[in-house]
Amino acid sequence: MPSPMRLWLGCLGLAACIAAGNAARAESGGLTLFDRLGGEAKLRATVHEFVLIMESDDRINFTFANTDLKKFEQLLYEQLCNLTQGGCPYTGRDMYTAHAKLNITNAEFNALAEDLYEAFDRVHVPYRLQNKVVAMLAPMQHDVVKDHPVSQNPAVAK
Ligand code: HEM
Questions:
Q1: Span 29-37, mean pLDDT?
Q2: 98 C-alpha to ligand 1 centroid (Å)
């Protein structure tokens, strides 16, 4: 049973989150990033283009050799929809688990980001919105990549 103090702090936290969310929405005319990207149709088209581009990108396509790409496309859509406040539940695995056995490098991570930019270009999503999405994905690099320099830096390694 949570104490009254914890409940109170929880309410304060929630209120702050709602206020921050409202401020972000007010700044963007009440629209979520999902809306501004063009909603479901545009985001699904982006993810579809991304899969086509990735399939012909020899820098990274080999990592998807044993992957059900239809399922991957759906999960990536759900994840991007969820991250951009489109309200979709994400039903896939967490990023660390999904990529744990793939030995992905920073170069491959960057190649995937480039492919995503190209996919957004193909469906005419403005560059500044593309950057907002990529900025949301950037922190995942640590979970996806095996050779990330951060963990190899003795100053910050655990
Ligand atoms: C922030 C960057 C990334 C995001 C948001 C992302 C997202 C996802 C998602 C949503 C899935 C499906 C999870 C599931 O199967 O439950 C997945 C799987 C996968 N990702 Fe990524 N990914 C990223 C980076 C990369 C990179 C850089 C590569 C390789 C170059 C990669 C290769 C794969 C492969 C091969 C799978 C399928 C694994 C399997 O079939 O078991 N991903 N990713």
A1: 95
A2: 6
